[in-house]
Specification:
Helix content is 35%, strand content 21%. By secondary structure, the protein is an alpha+beta fold.
């Protein structure tokens, strides 16, 4: 519980209408897309950087933790108030401040919804490529904090590749700006890149300057089904090896295909074992030639079905296959443990085979899909937590999947971050010297360990009595 005096001081900073300590309100800010839950002591909604800075200065004075939060759509518990304290919600800061069509940049506040921003820049013939699956409700501040990716990153890159500068409130309450509005800048350390993906542990984002691109003229979507996972993987390397970089290369394994087919009866060929959803964009005449070339290149690789969309409506129908995956998984088991490993794209068949062995060993369903173009596979371990021992088996299976990923020179997370969920496994990938360097950066910026404590690395916990 927070001292009533502190609650009063917080109210004075953000206004009485923008703070709550009522339990029924607090519950709404104690969970995210994981199944973990922690109750905060208070929730505040600052309107700008000055109010955010005042909250953090008060936190340092009284030594209570602060947990930045956007839409709460994260998959690793990165915004959860594990130590109680104050959840600082950025959704009131939700303005698109400017879109500069001459210099192809935009400045936004962190609470802007990703899809809303994309639609606004597209009205002006511009393009913001990062497209996480949560784009309809996730905020841009959260995207930057987690360095979100999405299907289009195989061609265009992830969020950090479009962040030119930030306004940040440091954990101690100072307000700084990082980066520039120029495409070249090498004065001092690159703090922008450091902060992007730092999961709210090094600062609270209050403004973002993004790079934009011209909107592509057209796009072409293709649904392809192969008789083996190896065929699908070879298709990816063959396409890219022939100097075609698709916008997206989405992958679904046989288990995923079965889930979707059982529920929605899409007419998948019985010999189908893996799906690639391929999309190219650019000049209209060029993408038609690219689609034909892709068909010719992948035909000898065990292709059993090929369908190219003729218009936007058909494209949406093909994407529906990918979007039906998540609602289909609950037919397998009610509880999902979702991991987002990455391996070199040539190693996708190897990691899928290793996951199949682990699935057989522990006798629990594991469903895999994701972004084949960059080797980012979403591994879904499906269990029923009501059955004794299943959660323990799932955790053991996940540890072995992580080890197999690292053995293939991969990484434990491509999009979701570490947060709380992956914290027990971080020492599998990072050695003590690497962790020590990162912790020293955290302590330099946050000497009182105020901002989002307990995330990424093990830290001394705060007491709820703070």
């Amino acid at each position: 519980m927070l001292d009533p005096v502190i609650v009063h001081q917080l109210s004075a900073i953000v206004g009485n209408d923008n703070i709550t300590t009522e339990k029924h309100d607090l519950i709404c800010y104690g969970y995210d897309a994981t199944q973990m839950e922690f109750l905060p002591s208070a929730v505040v909604h600052p309107a700008n950087a000055l109010e955010t800075a005042a909250v953090l200065k008060l936190a340092n004075q009284h030594k209570f933790p602060v947990f930045p939060r956007g839409a709460g759509s994260g998959f690793t518990g990165g915004s959860l108030p594990k130590s109680g304290g104050v959840v600082l919600v950025t959704t009131r800061m939700n303005r698109i401040l400017r879109i500069d069509t001459e210099n192809l940049i935009a400045e936004v506040e962190p609470g802007v919804i990703t899809e809303d921003f994309q639609k606004e820049v597209e009205k002006l013939g511009l393009f913001y490529p990062p497209d996480p699956a949560s784009l309809k409700f996730s905020t841009l501040g959260g995207n930057v904090a987690e360095n979100a990716g999405g299907p289009r990153c195989v061609k265009y890159g992830v969020t950090r590749d479009f962040v030119m500068g930030l306004e940040i409130v440091l954990p101690t309450g100072e307000i700084i700006r990082t980066g520039t509005e120029t495409y070249k800048a090498v004065v001092g350390y690159d703090l922008t890149r450091l902060l992007c993906g730092s999961e709210g542990t090094l600062g609270v984002i209050t403004s973002i300057t993004f790079k934009l691109l011209p909107l592509p003229d057209a796009k072409k979507t293709m649904l392809t089904i192969f008789d083996s996972i190896d065929g699908a993987a070879r298709a990816v390397s063959t396409i890219i090896g022939n100097k075609i970089i698709p916008t997206t290369l989405e992958f679904m394994d046989y288990s995923t295909l079965q889930c979707v087919e059982r529920r929605f009866n899409l007419g998948v060929p019985p010999e189908g074992r893996a799906v690639l959803l391929i999309e190219v964009d650019g000049d209209k005449d060029l993408i038609e030639k690219q689609a034909d070339r892709i068909h010719d290149l992948i035909r000898p690789l065990g292709l059993v079905h090929f369908r190219a969309a003729k218009d936007a409506a058909e494209s949406e129908a093909l994407w529906k296959v990918r979007r039906l995956v998540s609602p289909s998984l609950r037919d397998v088991n009610p509880d999902k443990m979702n991991e987002d490993i990455v391996v070199p794209r040539s190693k996708v068949p190897d990691i899928i085979r290793e996951i199949e062995k682990i699935q057989q060993k522990y006798d629990i369903p594991i469903v895999n899909f994701g972004h084949a173009g960059d080797g980012n596979i979403h591994v879904n371990v499906m269990i029923n937590k009501e059955i004794p021992g299943q959660e323990e088996k799932a955790n053991s299976a996940i540890r072995e999947i992580f080890q197999a990923t690292l053995d293939l020179h991969g990484t434990l997370s491509g999009e979701h971050g570490v947060g709380l969920a992956k914290q027990p496994f971080i020492e599998m990938e990072l050695n003590p010297s690497q962790i020590a360097v990162m912790q020293s950066i955290k302590l330099a910026l946050d000497p009182n360990n105020i901002l989002n404590p307990g995330k990424i690395f093990p830290w001394k916990e705060f007491s709820d009595a703070a």
